[in-house]
Design brief:
The complex is a heterodimer of chains A (about 425) and B (about 475).
Chain A: E1 6-11, H1 15-26, E2 32-35, E3 51-53, E4 62-63, H2 64-77, E5 81-83, E6 87-92, E7 97-102, E8 105-116, E9 120-122, H3 125-128, E10 138-140, H4 141-149, E11 158-162, H5 166-178, E12 181-187, H6 196-203, E13 210-212, E14 214-220, E15 227-232, E16 245-248, E17 251-254, E18 258-260, H7 263-268, E19 292-294, H8 305-323, E20 334-339, E21 343-347, E22 350-352, E23 359-366, E24 370-379, E25 382-392, E26 398-403, H9 404-410, E27 414-421
Parallel strand pairs in A: 1-2, 1-8, 2-5, 8-19, 10-17, 11-12, 11-17, 12-13, 20-27
Antiparallel strand pairs in A: 3-4, 6-7, 7-8, 9-18, 14-15, 15-16, 20-22, 21-23, 23-26, 24-25, 24-27
Chain B: E1 2-10, H1 14-23, E2 30-33, E3 50-51, H2 62-80, E4 85-86, E5 90-94, H3 97-112, E6 119-122, H4 123-129, E7 139-143, E8 147-149, H5 151-164, E9 168-170, E10 175-180, E11 187-192, E12 195-204, H6 210-215, E13 223-234, E14 245-247, E15 258-261, E16 267-270, E17 274-275, H7 286-299, E18 308-320, E19 325-329, E20 332-339, H8 344-361, H9 387-396, E21 403-405, E22 410-411, H10 412-420, H11 428-435, H12 448-459
Parallel strand pairs in B: 1-2, 1-12, 2-9, 5-14, 12-20
Antiparallel strand pairs in B: 3-8, 4-8, 5-7, 6-7, 10-11, 11-12, 13-16, 13-17, 13-18, 15-16, 19-20, 21-22
The chains are: A alpha/beta (about 425), B alpha+beta (about 475).
Chain lengths: ~425, ~475
Amino acid sequence: MKAVEYDVAVVGGGPAGLAAAIAAKEGGAEWIVIIERDIRLGGILEQCIHTGFGLTYFGEELSGPEYAWRFIEKVEAMGIHVELKSMVLSIDRDPLVIHAVNTNGTFAIPAKAIVLAMGCRERTRGAIAIPGSRPAGIFTAGTAQRFVNIQNRMVGKRAVILGSGDIGMIMARRLTLEGTEVVAVLEIMSYLAGLTRNRVQCLDDFGIPLYLEHTITEIKGNSRIEGIVAAKVDQNNQPIPGTEFNIDCDTLLLSVGLIPENELSKTVGAEMDSITAGPIVDHNMQTNIPGVFACGNVVHVNDLADNVSRESTLAGRAAARFAMESYRPQASQMVQIKAGKNVRYVVPQKIDLASGEEFVNVYFRVSNPDKCVQIYGAVGEQIFSKKNKPLVNPGEIESLKLSVDEIRAANCSCVCVNAEKQGGVQA
Amino acid sequence: MNMQADVVIIGAGVVGSAIARELSKYQLNVILLDRNRDIGGYASKCNGGTLSAGHDAPVGSLEAKLTVEANRMYPKILEELEVEHINRGTISVALNKAELVQLNQIRKNAIRNGVLDVETLSGDQCRTLEPMLSEQVCGGLLIPGEISADIFELVYAYVQNAIQNGVRFLRGTKAVRIEMDEKQSRVAAVITEHGRIETRFIINCSAIYADQIARTVGVHDYRNYPRTGQYYLLDKNLPYCPKYIIIPLPTAISRGRLITPTVHGNILIGPSADNGMDREYRSTDKQTLDSVLADCRKMIPALNPRDSITQFTGVRPAKNPKDWFVRAIDSVYGYVEAVGISQGVSAAPAVAVYIREILDDQGLSLRRKEEFNPHRKAFKRFAEMSEDERAEAIRKDPHFGNVICRCETVTEGEIIRVIHEEPSAMSLDAVKRRLRAGMGRCQGGFCSPRVVEILAREFGVPAETICKNEPGSEVLVAIERAK
């Protein structure tokens, strides 16, 4: 039995998948399906019961589930198909077919276009090699968040948090409200990994101490964690001998980074960017595989769900255009976007000059914090789309609006995005 | 709890488990007990994952004899017990001229140990077989007999097959001492924390704690101590993953720091070898891990710690004096021990036969069970099923359609099965060792909250009682509500 072909199939029903599916429908695609592994749509937003979502996208402050609901309502009203409790295991190319399972069995979904929106996973203790014993009581911050907010469980009584990522800071507040004593947040860098507003609202307001330039050198306890050894680090992030101190705790939360979840993208053969750990995409969020688009944290880890929604709208719209055969990218018209001075990565990594937009937004993160910065695109000596920024921070995503006409006029194959100290001198 | 048995085996590590299976072939009442709630002891669940060919054991030693013989027994056993394995073979590599001389000696020792299938390679021949090997490699020795296996599955299969054939397994039952009969001439019972087991024969396989049990019957001629080994576990599908197990030249106390492509396609690098005092010590430290990495990079320079999934410490049951003791004690009739077994996984089936013969010498009547079934059925992992097999599994039980561990594609159906199948999985780690749920790159970040709930539901207990491994390692704490 041959399954019916969808115009656009979206893998993942979190903020990226929801926005992409809606945009695909609005863009004219008729048959759209979202495949989601959880029991409901919304993805990680469902466990983000704190507010702070929607400030830029809706102009109001919403909780995670409220933010998700705005999109879920639309998905339902638009008649977009949803397959819940279904796990995608692989994707074939030529032709594009998604293979998934759920409790009804295995199923194959052929689609004209596919949007990859699987989100990301958390970096673990093993990935950063924290020495010591291997007791219970060590959680990634998101895992602890699920236990507390979805499963109504308590993870511990006295917690230390390693890493000042947003989920870590939000969990510091959340655990405090649930009765856990949060004794310290440690950050190896000299600056915050997450948003400044989270430091103010989640740590400062609750008197939770933040130790910058500190890390954990040992985990103690055989059955359940009994404590950690913290130490100050030098400029190379190495612990400084003699600065060690013990902190007793029965819980350790790790908020040490997120990694785009691209095992599926690899099964379909998407070309990856070694810095973002996500697929290389053009400004329509199309991967190197025709008809396969990617958006949200699968492409690069975003700071705000609002940005994910915006980026995913592009992917959904382009996927619809692709499905209706009104758009095919042309390799000859592709211009590379590269990370320049103090820029760690850029997304998209390519611009398709033939696709008809006047302007293209490029999103990026800086490598190091800096003040009074000039952000600009450059082709050799030629500089364009210049703007000034009083402060940049690796924890927050920056953007630059590039004019497609200007790039075309420069007749180049590559544009560099830079975030340089004003006056051209790097501090 | 008072029980009675013909033979009590103390310790369900790989040696005790293999002995349990061997004795289950006979008409005997056998009890296997372990202090932990899960099998595998300490050493058998934290090791390099290889079944050694025995070529590099001390020439003429009991270790050499048993390991070489076990290597010949394993193909049949792995087939009977349906344990995942790959016949990989090893390449021992030399990095300079002095090591080439040592390599020659290893070849000669291999031949003396009865391992004849060895081949000397030039540096270039090594790199032809393993292109990622360093330019420094100037010679090698190919030993095709070494096997990568899922060691946890091996222990599990030994115990499962033993249970199928009538052995009773007592978990969470710590042996405290051995009781002698009134005349102090032979053993009478094992006293455990939960009661007395009357028995005629006791086999001490308690590895790192063997000397403590032995002391209760007046055996004082050895001491056990821990030799810790730290490992890095790297991800799957890495471009520099070798096909063979890559071995450096041995050190005075160990085989050195190996690069092992595991049966599941990960890379294991290590172990270090450090003698210690604390038998419960299982920590890693940065200095040692850095040195493990540095040493292994001399063989494959591309090894990258950024691909690390986890690091862990295993504890080998070292012994002073270091020889293996697989023996009876004249003055303590009925007491038998297999201790100081530093290559337990590799030697276990031969040790089991050796122990059986000692029991025979001691007068235990060994009558073959006609109904003995040597076969243990392994369930095919969902991850390895074809599309049709998956559809069929889900049709029979829809729980197989619910993927719980996304990194290793482990389903709820499989988790429920290992919870209810003896020896049942009672903790997160027990589920992980049987199914690999939580062993992948996200290290249980996604599946552990789900597995906790499944364990609690299937056992009908509060989620707060579910442990990472042994009691005391509860994952959650109880919610205290204001009254």
